[in-house]
Structure formats: C-alpha cells, structure tokens
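Service request form, structural biology core

Requester: graduate student, group of Dr. S.
Request type: structure prediction, single chain
Budget code: on file
Notes: please return the result as structure tokens.

Sequence provided:
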Amino acid sequence: MTKRNVAVIGCGLWGKNIVRNFYNLDALNTVCDLDTENLKKLAMEYENVHFTTDFNEVLNNPEIEAVAVVTPSHTHFKVVSAVLNAGKHVYVEKPISTVADEAKKLMELADEKGLTLMVGHLLLYHPAVNRLKQIINEGMLGEITYIQSDRLNINYFKNDRSVMWDLAPHDVSMTAYVLGKEPVRVISAVGVSSDKNDIMDITHVTIEYEGGVVGQISDSWIHPVKRVNMLVRGTKATAIFDDTLPTNKLVIIDHTTPGAAKPEPLDFIEIEPLKLECQHFLNCFKTGTKPRSDGLNGYQVVSILEEAEKIMLGERRARLDKVNFKSSRSKKK
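Core staff response, request fulfilled:
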C-alpha cells in the first residue's frame, strides 16, 4: 500500500486539482488552507484525509515527508523556506518566486539539506510537448530558427504580480525545454495595463536562446478568445501545438516544397499532464532522482522574467514590492 505522506498547502482553484491528483495516487495525507468553507467542501469529497488551517501542523507532522505549495507566488519564498527547514521535500507551483535571489536561496537550501525541490512547470510533463521535443531532437524540423508561445485568456482574479508572473513561467520553461537550449538574454519586453497601473494585463517578451534562436512570448489576462499555442519554425518544417483543440493538438507542416503546406497531425499518448507531474514528484523524492523541473530550472525562469520586468517597468518596478496582493487566494492557473 502506498504511504500517504504528502500535504497540500493551498486548495483554491488550482490547488484543488493538486489535491485530486495526489489523492488519486494514494499519497495525500493533509490539506491545509485558511478558507474553512473550502476545507469543509473538500472534506466531504476526500475520505481519510486530514484538513487543517494550521500550517504548523504540517511542519510538525513526522508522517508528512513532502509538501505541495500551491499558494500565491509572492508567498512562495517564506512558505517553501519553512517547509525545507522542517526537513520536507517540496513541490511548489510556478513561479518558484518573483525574485531571482530568493529562487537561488531556495535552490541552495534544498541542496544543502539534501531535499527534493520541484517547480510546477506543468507543460514539461505534457505528452504533446514531449512529442514536440522528440521531433525537434530527431531533426524533423531541421535547424530551429524561431519559436513563439501565446497564452491568452480572460482572468477575473488578477492579484498576481502581473500576467507575466502568472503565465509566462509556463512559456519560458516550455520553450527552453523543447529547444534544449537555455535562454541567454531578454531582447525586449513590453506590457500594457488595462487599469493603467504597473500590474500588466498583457506582456510581450522576446528572448534569445543559445545558438541565436529567437523566441517570442505573449501572455494576456484580458483576451476574450482563449488562445494557447506554440509555433516552432525550423529550416525544414514548422510544428504547431494548440492545447485548446480537442484533437490534432500537435501538427507538423512542411514548408520546403511549394504546395505541400498541409498540416500533418502527430500522435501522442493522452494522459493528464498534472497526473504525470505529480507522479514524477513522488518518484523523485522517493528515489532521489533529479526533477525535470528542479530548483535550478525554476531559478533560470525567474531570472529571465525578472530581467524582462526590469526592462518593462524600469524604476517603476520597485513599486510592486509594496503592493498588498490578496494573500488569501490560493494559486490558480
């Protein structure tokens, strides 16, 4: 029988999905959240799970070996530090922090204590994304020259630091992963605030990757039509991954022969990416295997986004450190 040794901190819109997956994997011990009504609802759905509003119960429970932190991003450094110092492995939702120096400290703390630190860069576990990485590695697209990732939608709970911190960790981690190349620098970064403040609703970030590949990342909280896709342009062909489609999410288009530009769908195994991600975390802390999205990966992503925010806001960036975000809301996607 699998040992129930995982706690989830934060069971809001996205945290509920984390709870569901660890429960279905027979690993869920405790759920912690400040929202008592939310806990009551979950208690009716999940048997033999402990529910509490007391974070210290999680830290002091010797049965709990690992903790999934699914709280707002600005709380991550404090919460993850406490969990690591309590000697427990950590899965933390993206981004690991909104400050590169904090991300680095968390990475170093986990290494010092010999604990697993994994960041919820979900799309690194998506079967279609891994199929895309495979065809790139096999040379089906030729030499990669350009990559574009768009993540546009409506969000009525805009209390993260900006849409870039909410959504772009997916894009930055995914583009680097499929390319197998680290981001080198931010070429440009611009943002728009519909409320005319420094909390950006729309951001466009252009990144240079190793080997000179250019990537364009666009994210939006105010786009009326949902758009979640990635385009990878190579010298032989172009691949498009569209996660909003019910079928044929991943296609390849030959652009070397005139008249041959017909999308050809590529097969991949349909498994919920979050289930695969949670399974990966369980395996990593039980076996000591390095996570695909480890602390270093989280630090690299935050470093790029921090650089982009400095370009985007300049001296105005310091104001965000004084913004009182709603800490009661659990992390969403």
